[in-house]
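JOB MANIFEST
job_type = single_chain_structure
chain_count = 1
residues = 321
[input]
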Amino acid sequence: MRELTFSKAVYEAIREEMERDERVFVMGEDIAWPGNKWRGLRDEFGENRALNTPISESAMVGAGVGAALNGMRPIVDIMFADLLPICHDHLSNDAAKISYQYGGEVSCPMVITASIGATGRGIGPHHSQSIESYFLNVAGLKVVMPSTPYDAKGLMKAAIRDDNPVIFLEHKRLRGMKDTVPEEEYIVPLGKADVKKEGNDVTIVATAYMLRLSLDAAKILQKEGISCEVVDPRTLLPLDEDTIIDSVKKTSRLVIVQESPKAYGYGAEIAAIVAENALEFLDAPVKRVANPGTPVPATAILERAVIPSLNDIVKSVKEII
């Protein structure tokens, strides 16, 4: 089976959906730039379906909302998720609420793509954040965070076909990652988690790049006789609670890994869900591995002190075994 990078898998999903449905179009900064990740879309589908935009994220999302309400299926590329707060009003007060306000008779089918996370090289606090938690309390939005090229393609297709606004977050450190991706059509449903590795002693829940680190940690721990089950939510909103709860009932221990700040993040929500539904199955306190609650520093050395590491995950697992 062929291999694709994460970025190429996303590109292929978008191209195939643009070919399948003429209502789908992309818009973003530098779409026509020769080095842009979506440059080929403009060549194939023309400038009316691959639109260059000014550097105004709020205007881009606002235009996307308007297009969606008029029957189109826009994909708006914001580049860096750090800039999504500029668009929060359009996303939370317009896109997310419109279907509720009209009793389901009106929908806002759009996808917002953005890159998240630190690079490991130190590119500063304004281009390194993981801000998915900003949007997890907004009814009407869906939030996707894939960890593999296979999932990225299948989830992007599902996001484009969904009749709700979807925020699709791509971790910068995964873009060059290669994995097998089928050539035949497939969809990864939104709201369905995936057990990436089965185990018996502890459940690790993680997304995006933290999922990759968690799998590496599981390999190290396996050599020491600790069997880890690694669960990838893939979609944080809606969250597949059942898969996580079932895993915790099986292993009786839970470690949640997130790159975003620890306080009020999705790790806290997952811990609460497990406490409400599987408390009697836990043999140890739930552990969270996360940014301690500081902006991501501009230097690579200090960045490594803030972002959860492989050793942090291994240590946290050992503390509850």
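[summary]
The chain has a mean pLDDT of 95.
The longest helix spans residues 208-223.
exit_status = 0
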